[in-house]
């Protein structure tokens, strides 16, 4: 066809290089155009290369044939998505006429540019490719029977799905960043929660902090981080890492200073930063023998620096947590808990607490976290220990059971000794005092200083407020804050102060909150039964989060009751 067209008058005077179009095409097709010539100008036969697109056209036609079912597969999936979501929008917006169509959110209906359709296409193309490759293997046609367009489309679908997953991960990282900032900052919201606790049931001084005490908390966190910087020693780039840590500390200090007035709701309020000696004098002025100081030490122990403090844009313009301090978030260059604990344990020469107190708090906190995180494993371990004690007690008429009990769990009761300690340990291994009566009702929520803030969760907010707050806190933070409250009750209120009355009041509030949350869950489930599809999804998500939080709360409450009743049993023997 090309040769026939080249002789038409319109192409007669068209030249390609030194040849007319007709001659150029003739040489191209007979192979002499691209052939090599020898020294005499004669064509070398072996180098003749004829231009022939029949193979390429065949491949193109085969790919076109393979593309048809792939395109059909895509169209079917997108059509199903479009029809289903259009039907949902028509129903939810109560569309009765064409004019009502303007209320439809078309961005939710269009089968493109969203993670749902991306996942649907990944599944559809994956099934398509699996069936296609399976057929090739069964028929033993192998490579000649595989739909390569389908394989390529599957690879593209996976890439798009992964991209959406990465976007979701960035959102989760941002959420986690803000959760960490909130968790490591004593805020005005926490202050209001403590006020509600004080007004409703408990002595405010036990869990709340004054302005001066809050300043001490921030300063202790500052000096703990500064100590980490000063003792950073690495074989490679030690100076660079120390500089980066110092930049984080300066940024964090600025962040805390600027936020202090809004926390106090006093425009000219100022957060003072002290040297170590000044800080020690301030602590002495505020009665370091009080409960507040041990709670502040506990909070400072849990403070872990070098988390992201701001957002930045990625290559696609999406917000992600800043990567500025990414090099500080690993085991080699990052913060070491053991070094921070040692610093706190050696900072004070006074007798505000016994030597090794921070180590004791850390050990208890890690143990409680394991209890809440790995419930099944903890139950199995507890049963095994109890079984050992029981067998030994029977075999020896109980002669060695008390000694074994103290050896196994005696470290839990650092505030007891002698017969008191033995009674508490035996009661603990027995699952708590008999008087607690089994599982009983389930327990509460917690947050900031000593876990006190979550005790105020829902106070004055009613049933709906309690379950809503529980859903927002989430299972992860519930476990972290529950652990703080349990350690505060075990180590500070019981082992240190032997304050059973206050510990019982905490437990009572705990039970009250869990009851309010469970009532709220009933109301949410009733709402979900009659809600529209969109609202139902949101309600189910809230219900799931609240249920997970409640599950963690129940485990924490059981642990609290067991320890309190065991401690009380030990005290009764003293």
Short précis:
With 574 residues, the chain is an all-alpha fold.
Helix content: 55-70%
Provide the low-confidence segments as ranges: 192-205, 375-404, 428-448, 458-463
Estimate the global geometry from the Cα principal axes.
Answer: elongated
Oligomer designation? single chain
Spatial extent as radius of gyration = 36 Å
- Average pLDDT, rounded to a whole number, is 74
How many beta strands in the DSSP annotation? 4
Structural class: mainly alpha
- What's the tally of helices? 20
Order of helices and strands: HEEHHHHHHHHHHHEEHHHHHHHH
Largest sheet: 2 strands, antiparallel
Strand content: under 5%
CA(first)-CA(last) distance: 110 Å
The strand line-up of the biggest sheet is: 1-2
Compile the SSE list and pairings.
Elements: H1 2-6, E1 15-16, E2 19-20, H2 21-30, H3 54-92, H4 106-109, H5 115-138, H6 148-183, H7 188-200, H8 204-207, H9 211-230, H10 238-264, H11 276-285, H12 291-302, E3 311-313, E4 319-321, H13 337-347, H14 357-373, H15 375-395, H16 401-409, H17 418-429, H18 462-496, H19 500-530, H20 533-572
Antiparallel strand pairs: 1-2, 3-4
Helix pairs in contact: 3-5, 3-6, 5-6, 9-10, 9-11, 9-12, 9-13, 12-18, 13-14, 14-15, 14-18, 15-16, 16-17, 17-20, 18-19, 18-20, 19-20
């Amino acid at each position: 066809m090309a040769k026939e067209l080249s002789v038409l008058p319109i192409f007669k005077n068209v030249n390609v290089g030194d040849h007319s179009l007709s001659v150029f095409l003739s040489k191209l097709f007979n192979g002499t155009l691209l052939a090599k010539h020898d020294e005499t100008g004669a064509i070398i036969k072996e180098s003749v290369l004829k231009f022939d697109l029949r193979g390429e056209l065949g491949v193109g036609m085969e790919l076109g044939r393979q593309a048809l079912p792939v395109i059909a597969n895509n169209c079917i999936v997108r059509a199903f998505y479009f029809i289903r979501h259009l039907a949902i929008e028509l129903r939810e917006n109560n569309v009765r006429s064409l004019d009502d169509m303007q209320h439809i959110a078309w961005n939710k209906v269009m089968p493109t540019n969203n993670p749902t359709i991306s996942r649907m296409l990944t599944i559809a193309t994956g099934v398509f490719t699996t069936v296609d490759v399976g057929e090739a293997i069964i028929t033993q046609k192998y490579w000649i029977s595989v739909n390569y367009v389908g394989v390529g489309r599957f690879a593209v679908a996976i890439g798009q799905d992964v991209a959406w997953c990465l976007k979701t991960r960035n959102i989760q990282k941002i959420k986690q960043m803000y959760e960490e900032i909130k968790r490591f900052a004593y805020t005005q919201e926490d202050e209001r929660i403590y006020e509600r606790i004080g007004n409703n049931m408990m002595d405010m001084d036990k869990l709340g902090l004054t302005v001066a005490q809050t300043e001490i908390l921030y300063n202790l966190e500052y000096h703990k981080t500064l100590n980490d910087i000063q003792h950073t020693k690495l074989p490679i780039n030690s100076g660079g890492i120390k500089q980066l840590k110092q930049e984080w500390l300066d940024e964090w200090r600025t962040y805390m200073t600027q936020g202090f007035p809004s926390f106090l709701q006093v425009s000219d309020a100022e957060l003072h930063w002290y040297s170590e000696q000044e800080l020690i004098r301030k602590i002495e002025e505020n009665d370091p023998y009080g409960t507040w100081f041990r709670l502040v030490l506990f909070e400072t122990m849990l403070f872990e620096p070098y988390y992201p403090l701001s957002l930045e844009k990625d290559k696609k313009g999406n917000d992600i947590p800043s990567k500025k301090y990414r090099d500080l978030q690993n085991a080699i260059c990052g913060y070491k808990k053991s070094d921070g604990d040692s610093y706190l344990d050696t900072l004070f020469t006074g007798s505000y607490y016994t030597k090794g107190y921070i180590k004791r708090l850390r050990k208890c906190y890690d143990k409680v976290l394991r209890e809440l995180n790995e419930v099944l494993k903890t139950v199995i371990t507890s049963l095994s220990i109890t079984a050992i004690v029981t067998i030994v007690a029977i075999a020896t008429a109980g002669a060695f059971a008390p000694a074994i009990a103290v050896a196994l769990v005696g470290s839990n009761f650092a505030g007891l000794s002698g017969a008191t300690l033995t009674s508490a340990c035996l009661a603990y291994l027995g699952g708590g005092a008999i008087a607690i009566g089994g599982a009983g009702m389930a327990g509460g929520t917690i947050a900031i200083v000593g876990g006190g803030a979550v005790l105020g969760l829902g106070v004055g907010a009613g049933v709906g407020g309690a379950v809503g707050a529980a859903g927002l806190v989430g299972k992860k933070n519930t476990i972290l804050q529950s652990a703080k409250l349990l350690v505060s009750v075990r180590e500070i209120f019981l082992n240190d102060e032997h304050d059973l009355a206050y510990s019982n009041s905490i437990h009572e509030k705990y039970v009250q909150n869990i009851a309010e949350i469970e009532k709220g869950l009933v109301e949410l489930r009733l709402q979900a039964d009659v809600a529209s599809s969109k609202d139902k999804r949101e309600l189910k998500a809230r219900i799931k989060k609240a249920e997970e939080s409640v599950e963690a709360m129940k485990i924490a409450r059981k642990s609290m009751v067991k320890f309190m009743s065991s401690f009380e049993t030990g005290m009764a023997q003293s």
